[in-house]
TrEMBL record:
InterPro entries: ANF_lig-bd_rcpt, GPCR_3, GPCR_3_9-Cys_dom, GPCR_3_9-Cys_sf, GPCR_3_C, GPCR_3_Ca_sens_rcpt-rel, GPCR_3_CS, GPCR_3_vmron_rcpt_2
Name under which the protein is recorded: G-protein coupled receptors family 3 profile domain-containing protein
UniProt keyword list: Cell membrane, G-protein coupled receptor, Glycoprotein, Membrane, Receptor, Signal, Transducer, Transmembrane, Transmembrane helix
Keyword Glycoprotein: yes
GO-annotated cellular components: plasma membrane
GO molecular function: G protein-coupled receptor activity
Amino acid sequence: PTQQNSKHFLDFRFSIEQLNTNPSLLANLTLGYHIYDSCGDPRKAVRSVLQILSGTREPVPNYSCVGKRNIAGFIGDLTSETTVPIAQILSIYGYSQISYGATDPSLSDRTTFPYFFRTVQGDSGQYYALSKLLRHFSWTWIGIIRSDDDSGEKEVELLRRFLHGESICIEFTVKIGSNIGDDPQWLWGQNIIQKSSSRVIVLCGTVSLTLVGKLAKFARWIREKTFVLPSKWGANDQILSYAQHIFTGSLVLTQIYPYKLDTAEMRDFLNSLTPSNYPDDKLIEDIWTIHLLCLSNNPNKNSLYEHIYLRTLHNCTGQERITDLGNFNDHGNSGRVHLAVNMMSLALHDMNVSLGDQSPESSKVAVKYQHQIPRAQCSDNCLPGFRKAQRVQTQLCCYDCVRCSEGEISNTTDSANCARCPDLQWPNENKTQCITSTETFLSYTSDGISVVFFSISLLFFLKTVLIFGVFIIYRETPIVRANNRSLSFLLLVSIKLSFLSVFLFLGRPVDITCMLRIITFGITFSIAVSSLLAKTIMVCVAFKATKPGSSWRKWLGVKLSNSVVLFCSSIQIIICTTWLAISPPFQELDIHTSPGTIIIQCNEGSAIGFYSVIGYMGLLAAVSFVLAFLARSLPDSFNEAKYITFSMLLFCSVWITMIPAYLSTKGKNTVCVEIFAILTSSAGLLACIFLPKCYIILLIPENNTKSNLLGGKC
């Protein structure tokens, strides 16, 4: 807390002690108080209010968990950002609230905030006076610097309206963000201010040391300009003292209170506030530790404060006084806290006197029936989670209570209708509130099948790398060279990529992974099948070329195989590119298949594009299967066609059975079907094409000779 915040607390405490010692006010009553620090955070402010109303550490809305307690009202808060949500809650429960710093104009709406009061002028009154002040000095050409938040935007719009009424023009409006660094917007604003001709600048928005710090770095460009500050800026002593060199000569709107607190009683009170006089008061101890840098009796607290405030604490002599600090001697703004407490106490006093003036008879009747309110209802109240259903041919006050339908809630008693939850939420078990629906997808952490797929894919990838290494080492042997080793290498690379494409199907789907899933596998596997097709064609051509005088000899060589692979793969790439350009896959949230669950899945975008990719792979596989089947009886030196036949038969079987399974499943089960098809078909290619060769290379190397291959003994 700053010195000024601590001073507000001491002003509040002094006012309470004065009231409790005044016999003419609140006779036989003693005011107590709870103090909560909002830390400038609206969420913490709301939580603090609910804690006070509930009487417990954990807030319980709409319940008071403490027996006998009387909450008279609330004093605070300092800023509009925290005061508005507090006022919204207290207006519901009918508690009075008096703020000593909130200036938001919306708080003046007596319909919305009937129990809210404040001891400071609202923004409307301030900017009205400010516009009159500018007009009085004939300052009709001004600039505005505001905080980059909602408060700054609202205040600038309010100021514009009053300036327009006074025929005052605005040269520029510059926003300063709350981040510590120099953001591009502020750098642009510096350039605007340098080039501006206006000599007067009005500050608006949230009071912030960060904003003033940025102005201080820009001091040489604004030292010649005059600042005009609203009262909430002028009331912050810390801000003005932090940057005196830029605010010297500025005009500040201040609010004058009818009395001062610079009295002997106040000075005695402040001088008496020492840890030795109040050994059990932790707040006094904290004030001395933070502002006077005195060591406390708690070593842990000392270490914490030295770490937070980067200051060294020391043993105090006991002669130090809070009044030694500058802000505690400045009583110019003390009146607003003191006035808030006095307003509340006077209202309580008047109410107490009014209740005391009631006749004994009327009071006696009130007590007699206080706990004997008769019940006069046709039907019991419908609890939250139920709605009223009118009985047939009965009066309106007679009804039955019906449970809310699926997907609907009611959170009030005797609700006439149930409200449907938003799309991404679902009722809790009692149907009294909407809670976030459970998200489901093929997760690495919560689904064991994901770990299984991950492990299998990684295992087959490593096996493929191992086989690739074997083929590299034995690349000059006859069995590797017999069937176009370049195609074998390309086939191994494409199979490796097919196994790696499985990782795109695991985890939470996003747009980019949805687009890459099928397309990555489709292209890599099309290259693999194209390589097999090229191998099969080369087998047929090579057999034809063995005949004397055959014209097929000119087709022998790598040009034919490379052309087949390039042509067949290019068609798949064109299909995938067209699919992405027209209607690409995207992330989809399915909230209808399983009520209460959000299935995060990929929508294929265009069914035609999806089935075109799958269908083209099937076409390539079918052509390869037919050619390989026809070439299966060729001489043994070209017997790879047999293995291609089996691999393509396996591929076609897997993907034909995959289609109905794909269409009949939803969510992560659909992804499991796709992954299973990819792993099975890729593993089938690896096993059928390369394992027989590895068996010969590694286990029976004596068969890995040219004579054995030509002799049909391999």
